[in-house]
């Protein structure tokens, strides 16, 4: 999945979403006070003059699991990349623990406590599992042993196969390596971009289970997901993005049972 604009989908949803009110920003800003990660009124895009995000807001409290869903082209992955310094923010701010981190480089953000797992090309295939995890501590190599023991407690199978090359693993196993590598720097916040994409149903279940397990250790998780229903089932709060804006935000359980969300978004995503 990509977040490039999809004209047909946008036109198909235009009439349905015309009457949908965006999230009340005043209430959102008040609720966001003290959040560990915030994105306020972000405008961003890949090409000059073409915005994918059009005033997007997001916040995640310490220890929360936040899900982001929406149709193709809504800006979901772009939002994660903008928060992680991979897409230039044209206006708006991103803060971590109250400090402005807007447009900082990705390696600086890793040092500040943000981990990011991209959807594709997220492991070094020619390196072993252990070497991939060593890459995760490139800023603090002396912490490798300590962090490896922590990751091994979450992913014992990877620890047992530490000398196996990552390129020989299945898609789901590579996803586990990528998540493990992001955890090696002990992030406060972990950003996951479509972690279940392209995986078998069994491996999708494994990814969601591991995500919840990581979150239970105290790591704040912000996850973009194509499997909207499954995402909403496990997240504390969810955001529905549409055309680069927040269409809805509420608890995962409230969103999954909201008739408008089901009609306008969950049904569309199920057919996609």
- Fourth CATH level, the homologous superfamily: P-loop containing nucleotide triphosphate hydrolases
The portion of residues assigned to helices is 40-55%
Q: Looking across the biggest beta sheet, what order are the strands in?
A: 6-7-8-3-9-10
Total domains, how many?
A: 1
Mean pLDDT across every amino acid position = 89
* SS elements, strand count: 10
Q: Which descriptor suits the 3D outline?
A: globular
The biggest beta sheet reads: 6 strands, mixed
End-to-end Cα distance = 11 Å
Radius of gyration based on Cα positions: 18 Å
The CATH architecture classification is 3-Layer(aba) Sandwich
Q: Helix- and strand-based class?
A: alpha/beta
CATH class wording: Alpha Beta
Helical segment count = 12
CATH fold call: Rossmann fold
The unreliable regions are 1-22
Explain this structure to me?
The protein is of the alpha/beta class. It has one domain: P-loop containing nucleotide triphosphate hydrolases (Rossmann fold). The protein is 40% helix and 21% strand. It contains twelve helices and ten strands. The protein has helices spanning 7-17, 25-31, 76-83, 106-112, 129-135, 144-154, 156-160, 171-183, 201-216, 228-234, 252-256, 259-271, and strands at 37-44, 53-60, 65-69, 89-96, 99-100, 114-117, 189-193, 220-224, 237-242, 245-251. The protein has a six-stranded mixed beta sheet with strand order 6-7-8-3-9-10, sandwiched between helices. A four-stranded antiparallel beta sheet has the order 2-1-4-5. A hairpin with a 2-residue loop joins strand 4 (89-96) and strand 5 (99-100). Helix 5 (129-135) runs parallel beside helix 8 and helix 8 (171-183) packs parallel to helix 9 (201-216). The chain is globular. The chain starts with 6 loop residues before the first helix and ends with a helix. Mean pLDDT is 89; it is low at 1-22.
